[in-house]
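$ fold --in a.seq
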Amino acid sequence: MERKVDDGYKSAIMIATANSSLHSLISTDNTAGTAGSMRVFEMKFLAQRVHSKGEADEYLRQLSLHYGHIGEVFAQFVIKHRTAVAKRLHQVMAEVDAEASILASERFWSADIAAVLVAGEIAQVLGLLPYDPLALRHWAVFSQVPYM
């Protein structure tokens, strides 16, 4: 669990799950205003209830044995084409900024979205994942950003 520490270090990248909003935790005893909260990309997940607990447990066990199988291929592509990937990332970020009417204070949101979309495009080109980047983009721009 993340805890407030006054050591001067001001950077963290993390993925977390919780039963309460990270925004409410950040706002507690916060003298910095909303800046920290604007760096949070919080998604709401509804319980799907499509698997039993045993099935979910087995899925997680199998996932822990087989993660990372696309990482090497993906990383090799990005390194080989890093200039083009960076250019595409900036292009998608500008497009998302316009489509979602992103404010300057929301710049981390469009950066997150652009990184995921470009990664999805690369994974699709390489045949690594069956995700549709256009469907993901539509959800991000028209559902996720308004939710946040």
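$ fold --in b.seq
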Amino acid sequence: MRGLARDYAFSLMLVAGLMVRLVFVPYTSGSDIAQFASFSDTFLRHGLEFYKYADAKLYAEEGWPYNWPYVYGPQLVLLLAPLRALLRQPVLAYWNSGNYYVYVPVEWVVACKSLFVAFDVVSGVLIYLILSRYSGGRAALVGFALYYLNPAVIYTSSVYGMFDQIPLSLILASLYLYRSGRRLPGLALAGLAATFKPNVAPASLGVLVSSLVEDKCLKSRLSGLAAFVLGALSPFAPFVAYYSQTLSKAFEVLASLKPGYTYPIVYSFNGLSSLATYMHQFSGGDYEWVVSYWWVFYLVLNVLVAIWLTSTRERDVGLLALLLYLAFTTSYWRVNYQYFVPGIGLAALQVGGSRRRMVASIVYIAYIAFWVFMFPTSWWAHVHIKEPNMELWRVMDMFSLMVFDEGVYVVYSVLLTVLSVAVITALVL
């Protein structure tokens, strides 16, 4: 009976979460969805020479609405291009009376978000399966709810429209295989996730580091490393075979991302960067040096994780992946809101751990989710949608605190950084 009740609760949450997501899918759009259409158009136009255009230097000639470079592995464009080949409606981008307008076809919005929502489901189910196997049914339901019903996760996939849940699902599948004794395929999936989106790489390295630490045999270590590298580089293989400069172009784009002030402040989630940007904006002083030394903070947090790893007998691969990811999102100079989706997914797994780790993870997840109710999320219901759904717009405003003061977001980011350090400390104690 307990098993039946658990399955019923799981199914109910699965359907309810999906229904909430579907409400937003056709009627809201973030700016990245418009850019995804242009990335896909460029791939369909130039094929395996895609990375020749990834730096956005020819963005106007390519018809991109924004001059944002393609900073991801080829996995994303390989997933989106077939959808774009079927849905060729153009993105409208034009100036009018000094204002820049970008409108995305509803068909493209639905196609992108359907993919993202599908991987939300996959990630949630994997969290449930991992916790069911290793921590019991109650922990599985709680962990599943913390991720799948989380406003931050729903916002990312279904309101704004971003794809961090796809590499998260690869990490979770990697953890499931790794803990089941199938380490090589698990490491290959971790490598695949590492190059899917750069911000996910620290979590992927958690799986690799666990393998290198736990395996005592040199041959096993080398096999694991080879599987990881194969998973990471295999998506690039056809691109490199056709256009030899693919990897150098990809690294060139990443290297061009120099630390600086983080605008808009409402969408910046590193406390030091937000504070430096805010102080510069209102005083005119030079505080960019604070942002440029972000790597020092990152190094300190990783040393803390390394001390824990070398001094404990506990070998929880999921915990190490979470710690390395938190070290990154706590210190990196430019953190966007969608970066927290993998952190939420990995933190949800900790409900099956000690009471201290469970509480620290839940507090962290809840604090991140609160931002959704601060930010006027209805912005995405009309800024890129030519014919807005006014009813949904009004409903979204009803659930928003409608905070417009940038100072409030600076305080939120600073407290988030402090909380993240506290959570890392609690997890390693």
